[in-house]
Amino acid sequence: MNAPAIGSVSWFEIGSGKPDEVKKFFGELFGWQFRLNTDLEGVNYHAAVTPGVSGPTGGIFEHSDSSDEYAVFYVLVEDVPSTIEKARSLGGTVTMEPVVDAAGVSFARLRDADGHHFGVYSMPSPA
Q1: What topology is assigned to 7-72 in CATH?
Q2: pLDDT in tens, the chain (127 residues)
Q3: Closest by Cα among 80, 78, 82, 89 to 112
Q4: Whole-angstrom Cα distance, residue 19 to residue 24?
Q5: Cross-strand pairs, 108
Q6: I want to staple 106 with a disulfide (CB 3.0 to 4.6 A). Which of 5, 24, 54, 80 is the partner?
Q7: Cα angle for residues 113, 101, 70 (degrees, 5° grid)
């Protein structure tokens, strides 16, 4: 499998107060498998492994507010802060400032000029 290209949609996230129900639904519907990801301390995140790939391509963010159910896509970028700066210059807004997890993945959530929710992320630089 080739690595995703910069600028491609290559991750998804589903936010849910009922992650077991979401995992059951998508697992039975599409054959997705899930494993707990502990890269962010204090966060329950269930990585989703979809058929035909060796690693996760998305996940379920477990939260307690059932009024905040969502599904969002993430775009791979070279640099999250510079992408945020460019998005702001185009009328976008940041809904979640950048976070870096234990694996070195940096990510943030934004809205475009019309209010559509999406995310951006970058992988850590090779050592």
Answers
A1: 2,3-Dihydroxybiphenyl 1,2-Dioxygenase; domain 1 (3.10.180)
A2: 467 899 999 999 999 999 999 999 999 999 999 999 989 888 999 999 999 998 999 999 999 876 689 999 999 999 999 999 999 999 999 999 999 999 999 999 999 999 999 999 999 987 6
A3: 89
A4: 8
A5: 120
A6: 80
A7: 45
| Amino acid (1-letter code) at residue 8 | S
**Which CATH superfamily does the domain covering 77-127 fall into?**
2,3-Dihydroxybiphenyl 1,2-Dioxygenase, domain 1 (3.10.180.10)
Q: Which whole-number Å values give the CA distances from 57 to 64, 81, 88, 93, 122, in the listed order?
A: 23, 22, 27, 25, 14
Q: What are phi and psi of 58, to 5 degrees?
A: 180, -170
